[in-house]
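#struct-pred

JT: dropping the chains for the assembly here, can someone run the whole complex?
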Amino acid sequence: GESVGLHLPTLSVQEGDNSIINCAYSNSASDYFIWYKQESGKGPQFIIDIRSNMDKRQGQRVTVLLNKTVKHLSLQIAATQPGDSAVYFCAENQYSGGGADGLTFGKGTHLIIQP
Amino acid sequence: DAGVTQSPTHLIKTRGQHVTLRCSPISGHKSVSWYQQVLGQGPQFIFQYYEKEERGRGNFPDRFSARQFPNYSSELNVNALLLGDSALYLCASSPGQGAYEQYFGPGTRLTVT
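RK: done, full complex below.
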């Protein structure tokens, strides 16, 4: 079964507010996590990544938090803008030690920005 | 800098036919991965190629194959197309082996009728 999943399929926030998108994973062997943004008809756009030896990483208006104890990942978007409307995916790399493994994606959360 | 490019953008094929999709990675990237994204779901890993060799494979049938060329571009081939192969096929490039720092192209939308 899927080892990466998202708690909410749709998240609606007011423009200017902060958004928090959550993700649960079940494989404690995962060593790397990425957040992607996908707009309709486009490929996933890299937002931010984090390795398992870190708890927090910040980018421009975005912060990723990793809680390995409860196997939880979150993406925080500050001062949400209309252009942030998209589907957001978390993905994990399950390192097996035997070579290259692909990313495992969850189903995604649709972020809707209310004016 | 140019990002990942894929061709064609859209493709319509009939059941039983064969299709070839193409991908050019970001300049300097040596790894190409292929993913299938069915409508409403997250991408599913198909293959990874690094330095022209297959380095990883997802749970897809042998009808799916790929190769990587000396210039690091890649082709994905699907034989004996089924209706269920209709999807967005995504190519991702990364600097090295593994699933780290993967950057996706715009995808090829394949419709099988």
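JT: nice. The interface with chain A takes residues 4, 31, 33, 35, 40-48, 50, 55-56, 58, 88, 90, 97-107 of chain B (CB under 8 Å). Residues 84 and 112 of chain B are 8 Å apart (CA to CA).
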